[in-house]
Design brief:
The complex is a heterodimer of chains A (179) and B (139). Chain A is α/β, with parallel strands linked by helices. Chain A has a single domain, classed as 3-Layer(aba) Sandwich (Glutaredoxin). In chain A, a hairpin with a 6-residue loop joins strand 1 and strand 2. The longest helix of chain A is centred in the N-terminal third of the chain and has 20 residues. Chain A is elongated and about 75 Å long. Chain A starts with a helix and ends with a helix. With 139 residues, chain B is an all-alpha fold. Chain B has 2 domains: 89 residues, Cytochrome C biogenesis protein (Helicase, Ruva Protein, domain 3, Orthogonal Bundle), CATH 1.10.8; 33 residues. Chain B contains 5 helices and no strands. Chain B starts with a helix and ends in a 13-residue tail after the last helix. Classes of the chains: A alpha/beta (179), B mainly alpha (139). At the A-B interface, helix 4 of A face helix 3 and helix 4 of B.
Chain lengths: 179, 139
């Protein structure tokens, strides 16, 4: 009996494996972050608009906030910008921008032309802060809870749907937990 | 290491840790640097190491490795620094532990399975009557 069942079972196992492995919706470049559940690394940089003004995520401690990594070289960042503006309008959580591998002037122009959804925009001059956050591309969006822990990372352009589906429930849960 | 460290510290003070070719002045350190960066994946290009890749992230990470070596960190400390931020995937040679045991063990499991299957088939055949034996049936 097992002689007939075994190939069948092997076929099912392979089919399940392929269903997950070859799923075209699965982004093979999206890697799970080991930083989930860990304290958010510090951002101690200066404002993109004004090099004299410091930007520090310690100021946001005690509230749920978002860190959005972007650069003017990144087409997908342009794509998600409208969604970020819309999210900022809802005033649910502050958004900290982290400008990555870019020039101050270009980033400044970008914000002046497209609008500024950020509560603060930090300029990462040498990529060190990005390394601490495990950033390997843009856009990347992190959700930090009120205890200062990273609870979620989204790798891809932000959209209103993603915001509704992935972020809002997590923000509500983080607040509901009294954390 | 004491003498080496002292010499290195002086070299760092003199012209920074790099020589004219952009290599670490201490050849032993440079050799370790080359080994370490070959084992770190460039996460932007994924199938290249940060030694081979030209993207900005790879050069940032090479700088990080160089600085940690000069600061006297061990190879393991550097790998830990990278996996803490980027996950095990950043290493081309992940260490054998509980999470990676299946990956490292899979070839041996498959080999064992193959041996078991072959043994069963051979045993089954050896119990079958040979073709040229006279058939015991009536004819």
């Amino acid at each position: 009996m097992w002689k007939f069942l075994l190939p069948f079972a092997a076929f099912i196992a392979l089919a399940v494996l392929f269903a997950f492995g070859l799923n075209p919706k699965r982004d093979i470049h999206a890697l799970p972050s080991p930083l989930i559940g860990k304290p958010a690394p510090s951002i101690a940089l200066t404002d993109v608009m004004d090099p004299a003004r410091p930007v520090n995520n310690a100021e946001f401690k005690g509230q749920v906030y978002i860190v959005n990594v972007w650069g003017t070289w990144c087409e997908a960042c342009r794509e998600e910008h409208a969604a970020l503006l819309e999210i900022a309008q809802q005033k649910v959580v502050p958004i900290i921008g982290l400008v990555y591998q870019d020039q101050r002037e270009k980033a400044k122009q970008w914000l002046e032309q497209l609008g500024n959804p950020y509560s603060a925009v930090a300029f990462d001059t040498d990529g060190r802060t990005a390394i601490d956050w495990g950033v390997y591309g843009a856009p990347e969006t992190f959700l930090v809870d009120s205890r200062g822990r990273i609870i979620y990372k989204f790798i891809s352009p932000m959209t209103p749907e993603v915001w509704q589906r992935e972020f809002l429930p997590r923000i509500a849960a983080a607040r509901g937990a009294g954390a | 290491m004491g003498v080496l460290g002292g010499a290195l510290a002086r070299a760092v003070e003199a012209n920074g840790p790099l020589d004219a070719n952009g290599q670490l002045q201490d050849p032993a350190l440079q050799a370790r640097f080359e080994r370490v960066v070959k084992d770190l994946r460039c996460l932007v290009c994924q199938n290249e190491s940060i030694a081979d890749s030209n993207v900005e992230l790879a050069s940032d990470l090479r700088r990080q490795v160089r600085e940690m070596l000069v600061a006297g960190k061990s190879d393991d400390e550097i790998f830990d620094f990278m996996t803490d931020r980027y996950g095990e995937f950043v290493r081309f040679n992940p260490p054998v532990d509980r999470k990676t045991a299946l990956i490292w063990g899979a070839p041996f499991i498959v080999l064992l399975l193959g041996v078991v299957i072959i043994v069963r088939i051979v045993r089954g055949r050896s119990r079958m009557p040979l073709d040229d034996e006279p058939s015991p049936g009536p004819l």
